[in-house]
């Protein structure tokens, strides 16, 4: 396959992003909404192309790997980006100018994630990571004049820079001790038993850097504040896509390059998993703000995804792929509801959600099913994906870890249902009108709801796709 | 030559290297000091001529020793350090500004083989070292604890950092033609035709950007006497002020020498010895700079930056694109195919 | 040049880089910290020259000394508040931070000491500039282009954020 065809998804994404940047300057004020539609439509087109090329396999100049695994993640990022764009129409339109740049940054950060998922070389990986992080830093500060948004931006950029520095140091140590930045060369060195103490230090730094991007405990401190301050659609995108991108890159580096040194880092991952699942779920209980609640829930979700890494098997990787895809729809659904609610009531506090079921049955229903899917209640898709994750660790003999994760899932049901209780049993504040949901968002909400039910009841197509991608990853 | 002589005395290699480096350094220093002192005189005479004045005419025949007298005067004056100054930064700044000013001469080919260090990265070394001047100006502007100095320093830095970009891009046009960053290669490549003819736009951009880089009129916002006295240099006295002043003319000399190397064929020329050709061309460039300085009024800072970002930078990018296409077309014509 | 001379140069640069890096962290005046950062960058450039990576050294000087640190000092000077002599503040955990840093440093040094020194695979080119150019536009073209987009995003972001401040006033 020619190079341009292998890179077509990335190239089109880059062109779309850059084109929107230029268009944003040309389109007159008042017609800027079209930019959002264009962004969403363009992303849909690119997603269709990526789906058509899902079996594509090839290597571009040694350092850039196109394979079903990477393409699966690219589809995931594209879906998240589409939902983000759709839920942003209203929200960003109200923030005033900078719309062209907003959508361009969303798309360019998607490009960064795609590069992360396909990077077979450390420098490419780092640059993809930075492209994603820098775009998010800017997006996080998009609520002008809002102290919390500024705080979110500053926190993300400082802690992001710190974690990037740690990751970069790890990468440089890895390069220094193996003599190559190519992942396949590094794996050759590691295979031949060439693990030096310096490489171990490098691995620790890499773990720290990646754990930061995944928002796994104890590298999670930034998440609640950034999630709370950033514009809600950006928070949604950040919580699902950047986490998935970090997992994609992590799998590539640790399973392929450092796969043979698995015993060295496996226990650290177990520790990260336990901490994330326990701390994420327990700290979520007292949260009063829906975005902070979802932030802690996303920390615990990072813990569940880490179970797949603990398993270190095809089943584990497949479960990660499957769970992260459904996590996109469940989490995006919850955040889209939060966005619409914020647009109507200018509030993110859970107590203000009182009586939402009467003001907008659709919003309350989507929130309910999204949260239940996050908690892993059948017949929703979250149940199936969590089931696979637990099976993957039990397969490897970590029964106690699975039991702990199940127990913590039960804890999570408690705080998710707290929100549901407020929505359905609370009384709406007097004088509050019903909430109107824009058509685009209605469609997006319906889509994510459909996905959650469809793959909860009939998961086979997606699981087949996820597990075949995972098998291709290990081949 | 020198190497062989020193080695014959039985000195080890490192000693030979060190001695050679010292000799080069002394040679460059002597060249620079003599020229700078003369240039100050020249500038005053030319400005006087342009403004229909006499200029310095008391010390020596036609005032030719005026600069020498000034230099001695500055050496003897009291070295004042303001009480509220950031003392160490204040003391170090004039020295820091002078180091890159001298260092850039390492890659200037004064004649065939007359080059202190024919580096692989030649021109790029010049740009890199020259870019550090901004730090010294910031240090000077900061240390005096004077708001006019700080303002002047800020302005200058904004100006120098911005104009560095078109400067680099203009040089890139020449580098693309030669395919080497070595200054000796660049001069050798101009045996047939000077690059000012092949790269007229680049020369123009270089000339404008270099004027801004050395902070000369009409881009002399660093001083802007009417607004901020002498900018970063206001608080400096005696020898320290002299060093700033000297470095200004040293820089003028070095950008002129680089212009000659890049665009005017370096030391190449008929009949006369190469080093003489080089000096003549350098002085032509310097006269051009002086002519411009005393002809155009100072430009306002925002106009200055707008001109750079909205005109000079796109122009230099277009020039690079055109050069690239030109080279490809030329190669196609020469080889008869792509 | 003899290897002794190289070794001497290395140790001088080593002391320069480490001492000025420490000064960056420990000095109380943030302008001085920034200036020492410049010195540290220069020292790193010197180490690149010792490794015969002249082009990289020049880039280090041009980008870090000539541009990045200038912007840094610029920022510091424009945003200063109150007493500049106490501008680079320490929080209450300086002792703990020192202990942790020292422990990390010892750990890395120990790991380094136990690792046999190795050289990169393959031979390194004589013409570093040409080899770099070919690498950028050849095997490394993907990261090269990504870096271009990354820088663009950075510029756009800087303008977006700076513009906001202006409009709010």
Q: Summary?
A:
The complex is a heterotrimer of chains A (475), B (338) and C (169). Chain A is mainly α.
Q: Tell me about the biggest sheet of chain A?
A: 2 strands, antiparallel
Rg of chain A computed from alpha carbons, rounded to a whole number of angstroms: 21 Å
Fraction of residues of chain A in helices?
over 70%
Topology of chain A as a string of helices (H) and strands (E): HHHEEHHHHHHHHHHHHHHHHH
Q: Mind telling me which CATH architecture of the largest domain in chain C this is?
A: Up-down Bundle
Instruction: Please give the oligomerization state of what you see.
Output: heterotrimer
For the record, give the distance between the C-alpha atoms at the N and C termini of chain C, rounded to a whole number.
60 Å
Q: CATH class of the largest domain in chain C, please?
A: Mainly Alpha
Span of the ends, CA to CA of chain A: 20 Å
Largest interface: A-C, 43 and 33 residues
What does this structure look like?
The complex is a heterotrimer of chains A (about 475), B (about 350) and C (about 170). Chain A has about 475 residues and is an all-alpha fold. Chain A has helices spanning about 5, 10-25, 35-50, 70-95, 100-120, 120-140, 145-180, 185-190, 195-215, 220-230, 230-255, 260-285, 290-310, 315-345, 355-360, 360-375, 380-395, 400-425, 440-455, 460-475, and strands at about 60, 65. In chain A, a hairpin with a 3-residue loop joins strand 1 and strand 2 (about 65). Chain A starts with a helix and ends with a helix. Chain B has about 350 residues and is mainly alpha-helical. Chain B has 14 helices and no strands. Chain C has about 170 residues and is mainly α. Chain C has two domains: about 1-90, NADH-ubiquinone/plastoquinone oxidoreductase chain 6, subunit NuoJ (Four Helix Bundle (Hemerythrin (Met), subunit A), Up-down Bundle), CATH 1.20.120; about 125-170. Chain C has six helices and no strands. In chain C, helix 1 (about 5-25) runs antiparallel to helix 2 (about 30-50) and helix 2 runs antiparallel to helix 3. The interface between A and C is large, with 43 and 33 residues.
């Amino acid at each position: 396959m020619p190079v341009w065809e292998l890179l077509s998804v990335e190239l089109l994404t880059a062109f779309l992003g850059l084109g929107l940047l230029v268009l944003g300057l040309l389109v007159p004020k008042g017609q800027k909404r079209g930019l959002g539609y264009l962004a969403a439509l363009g992303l849909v087109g690119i997603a269709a192309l990526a789906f058509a090329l899902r079996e594509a396999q090839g290597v571009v100049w040694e350092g850039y790997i196109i394979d079903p695994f990477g393409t699966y993640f690219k589809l995931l990022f594209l879906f998240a980006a589409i939902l983000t764009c759709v839920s942003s129409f209203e929200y960003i339109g109200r923030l005033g100018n900078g719309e062209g740049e907003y959508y361009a940054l969303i798309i360019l950060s998607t490009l960064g994630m795609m590069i992360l998922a396909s990077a077979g070389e450390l420098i490419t990986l780092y640059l993809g990571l930075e492209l994603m992080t820098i775009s998010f830093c800017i997006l996080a500060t998009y609520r002008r004049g809002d102290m919390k948004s500024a705080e979110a931006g500053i926190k993300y950029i400082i802690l992001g820079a710190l974690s990037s520095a740690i990751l970069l140091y790890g990468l440089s140590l890895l390069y220094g001790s193996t003599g190559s930045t190519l992942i396949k060369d590094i794996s050759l060195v590691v295979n031949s038993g060439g693990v030096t103490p310096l490489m171990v230090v490098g691995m620790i730094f890499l773990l720290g850097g990646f754990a930061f991007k995944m928002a796994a405990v104890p590298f999670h401190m930034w998440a609640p504040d950034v999630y709370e301050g950033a514009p809600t659609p950006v928070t949604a995108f950040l919580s699902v896509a950047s986490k998935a991108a970090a997992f994609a890159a992590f799998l590539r580096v640790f399973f392929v390059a450092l796969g043979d040194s698995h015993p060295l880092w496996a226990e650290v991952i177990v520790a990260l998993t336990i901490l994330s699942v326990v701390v994420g779920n327990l700290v979520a209980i007292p949260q009063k703000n829906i975005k902070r609640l979802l932030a802690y829930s996303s920390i615990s979700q990072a813990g569940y995804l880490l179970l797949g890494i603990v398993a270190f098997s095809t089943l584990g990787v497949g479960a990660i792929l499957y769970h992260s895809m459904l996590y996109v729809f469940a989490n995006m659904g919850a955040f889209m509801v939060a966005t619409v609610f914020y647009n109507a009531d200018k509030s993110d506090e859970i107590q203000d959600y009182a009586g939402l079921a009467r003001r907008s049955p659709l919003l309350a229903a989507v929130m309910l099913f999204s949260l239940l899917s996050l908690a892993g209640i059948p017949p929703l898709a979250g149940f199936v994906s969590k089931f696979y994750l637990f099976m993957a660790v039990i397969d490897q003999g970590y029964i106690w870890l699975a039991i702990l994760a199940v127990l913590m899932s039960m804890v999570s049901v408690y705080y998710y249902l707290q929100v549901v209780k407020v929505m359905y049993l609370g009384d709406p504040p007097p004088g509050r009108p019903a909430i109107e949901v824009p058509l685009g968002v209605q469609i997006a909400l319906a889509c994510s709801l459909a996905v959650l039910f469809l793959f909860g009841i009939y998961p086979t197509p997606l699981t087949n796709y996820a597990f075949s991608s995972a098998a291709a990853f290990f081949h | 030559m020198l190497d062989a002589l020193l080695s014959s005395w039985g000195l080890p290699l490192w000693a030979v290297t060190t001695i050679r480096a010292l000799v080069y350094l002394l040679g460059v220093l002597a060249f620079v000091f003599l020229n700078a002192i003369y240039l100050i005189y020249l500038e005053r005479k030319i400005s006087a001529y342009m403004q229909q004045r006499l200029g310095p005419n008391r010390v020596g025949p036609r005032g030719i020793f005026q600069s020498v007298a000034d230099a001695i005067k500055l050496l003897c004056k009291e070295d004042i350090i303001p009480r509220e100054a950031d003392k160490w930064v204040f003391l170090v700044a004039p020295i820091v500004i002078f180091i890159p000013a001298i260092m850039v001469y390492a890659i200037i080919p004064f004649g065939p083989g007359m080059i202190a260090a024919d580096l692989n990265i030649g021109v790029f070394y010049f740009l890199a070292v020259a870019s550090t001047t901004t730090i010294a100006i910031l240090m000077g502007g900061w240390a005096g604890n004077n708001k006019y100095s700080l303002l002047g320093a800020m302005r200058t830095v904004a100006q120098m950092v911005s104009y560095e970009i078109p400067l680099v891009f203009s040089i890139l046009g020449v580098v693309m033609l030669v395919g080497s960053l070595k200054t000796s290669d660049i001069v050798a490549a101009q045996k047939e035709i000077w690059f000012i003819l092949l790269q007229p736009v680049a020369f123009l951009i270089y000339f404008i950007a270099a004027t801004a880089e050395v902070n000369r009129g009409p881009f002399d916002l660093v001083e802007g006497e009417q607004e901020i006295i002498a900018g970063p240099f206001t608080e400096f006295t005696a020898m320290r002020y002299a060093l700033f002043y000297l470095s200004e003319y040293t820089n003028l000399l070095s950008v002129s020498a680089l212009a000659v190397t890049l665009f005017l064929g370096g030391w190449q020329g008929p009949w006369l010895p190469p080093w003489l050709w080089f000096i003549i061309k350098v002085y032509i460039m310097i006269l051009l700079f002086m002519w411009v300085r005393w002809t155009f009024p100072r430009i306002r800072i925002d106009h200055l930056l707008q001109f750079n970002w909205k005109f000079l930078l796109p122009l230099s990018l277009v020039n690079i694109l055109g050069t690239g296409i030109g080279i490809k077309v030329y190669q196609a014509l020469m080889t008869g195919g792509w | 040049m003899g290897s002794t001379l190289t070794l001497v140069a290395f140790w001088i640069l080593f002391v320069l880089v480490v001492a000025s890096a420490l000064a960056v962290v420990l000095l109380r005046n943030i302008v001085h910290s920034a200036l020492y950062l410049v010195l540290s960058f220069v020292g790193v450039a010197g180490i690149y020259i010792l490794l015969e990576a002249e082009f990289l050294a020049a880039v280090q000087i041009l980008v870090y000394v000539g541009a990045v640190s200038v912007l840094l000092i610029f920022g510091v000077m424009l945003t200063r508040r109150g007493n500049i002599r106490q501008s680079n503040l320490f929080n209450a955990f300086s002792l703990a931070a020192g202990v942790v840093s020292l422990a990390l440093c010892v750990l890395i040094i120990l790991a380094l000491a136990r690792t046999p020194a190795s050289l990169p695979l393959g031979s390194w080119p004589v013409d570093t500039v040409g080899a770099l150019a070919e690498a950028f536009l050849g095997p490394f073209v993907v990261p090269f282009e990504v870096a271009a987009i990354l820088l663009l995003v950075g510029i756009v972001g800087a303008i977006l954020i700076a513009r906001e401040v202006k409009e709010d006033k």
